[in-house]
Amino acid sequence: MSICAFWQVYDNIIPLILENTFHLSSTMTGAVMGLDNILALFLLPLFGALSDRTNTRIGRRMPYILFGTIAAAVSFVLLLFAQQGRSLVWFMIILGVVLIAMSTYRSPAVALMPDVTIKPLRSKANAIINLMGAVGGALMLGATPLLVRAGGDDYFIMFVTLAVFMVISVAVLFFKVDEPACVAEMRKESAAHGIDETSGDIAGSGEKVKMTADVRRSFLLILASIFLWFMGYNAVTTGFTRYAQNVWDRGIGNAAMILMVAQIAAILSYIPVGVIATKIGRKKTILGGIAMLAVAFGASMLFMDFSYLMFVFFALAGVAWAFINVNSYPMVVEMSRGPNIGKYTGYYYFFSMTAQSITPAFSGVFVDAFGWRTLFPYGTIFVGLSFVTMLFVKHGDSRPDAPKSRLESFDVDD
Q1: Biggest alpha carbon distance in the chain?
Q2: Fold category of 2-192 in CATH
Q3: Model confidence over 100-128: pLDDT tens digits?
């Protein structure tokens, strides 16, 4: 929740400061705003793997979460002093500190969920993560017009509010979640279901267990699928406002409303999707989501003029994205062992962030050559390709073993 709250404020306000305070061009502003994606490509896998090898009294992930959150919150507020002093050099130095601080704990924070959650329930848990992230973003989105004067450049109250929100969030996590105890409980529950969560790359032991060839094939295929559907989905969502202006001759308001419908549909779908995946399996749920997303984008390309049916198709796209997004990360870490979840979390982010970094420029090549009407075919093709690669994924689903007898169904710890 605090991570998504941060990025909501960052994406909304930092470009305004760069353009209005420091008078950077749109090109330079875009380059600065792309720094977080570039850093993420290298730092998210690095700190995910480092947290796997960390062993402290408060756990493996918690030190990174505590340090990263506090460092990011404090340095983010310090950006205001560089802004008020009109010092672009200091602003960029502090901004670099902010982005590095955020990168130190994003993978460990996300990896904490599978650390403390038994494998068959990770889709449900990931649904809650996505829901809380959406809530954090929505809270800051709603707070922005209340805390920032229209047309003004005084962001002190907004930045301090965000910093306090982040610190309170991490304090609740630290004092309510005993990481080592929760990990031990998860491993006990896993053992009861015949799931091994103790082998793998064990911190400090040097012991390694290699993937079998068929599991490695599935692992590479799902990473390819993640790359492909992010290539398609993010191209459409980042280019849609310009598509509406150039193809439909509509203002940004119409496009924003359509995108908001997709976001609301996704939020409403997160929890039900987690339940569905538990019933039918993650792979089938993801394939259904890919099919719905391809239909939504494919149908959208047919409308050369604005139509209210676009709200329907983007609502379908939002639901489809929930089907995909809730289950893809659990499938990746399903193929890991408990001690190396952070490394696999880094792999997930490397492929998703790489796609998000290159797809705006790559789709722009087709737009420049053939016009904006290529946007939806571009998205549909990449989403369709992810369906093909996902079909051949044979691992990553997990279901709890049935109790050996009916009496065991009542054997629940106090």
Answers
A1: 71
A2: Growth Hormone; Chain: A; (1.20.1250)
A3: 999 999 889 989 998 999 888 888 888 88
CB 311 within 8 A of CB 261: yes
What is the amino acid identity at position 107? S
Q: Where in the chain is the domain with CATH 1.20.1250.20?
A: 2-192, 213-391
The terminus-to-terminus CA distance of the chain in angstroms comes to 30
3-state class percentages of the chain: helix first, strand second, coil last, to nearest 5: 80, 0, 20
> CA-CA distance, 99 to 14, in Å (whole number)?
12
Return all residues near 35 (Cβ < 8 A) that are at least 6 apart. Answer: 95, 96, 99
Cα gap 350→337, rounded to integer Å: 19
The token duo for 362 is: 């790559």
Contacts of 262 (CB under 8 A, 6+ apart): 237, 314, 315, 317, 318, 321
Cα distance between residue 263 and residue 350, in whole Å: 24
pLDDT per residue over 197-246, tens digit each? 655 443 434 445 577 888 889 999 999 999 999 999 988 987 887 788 78
Question: What's the DSSP call for residue 211?
Answer: P
CA distances in angstroms from 370 to 131, 245, 366, listed in the order given? 38, 16, 6
Question: 213-391, which class in CATH?
Answer: mainly alpha
Round to whole Å and give the CA distance between 310 and 314.
6
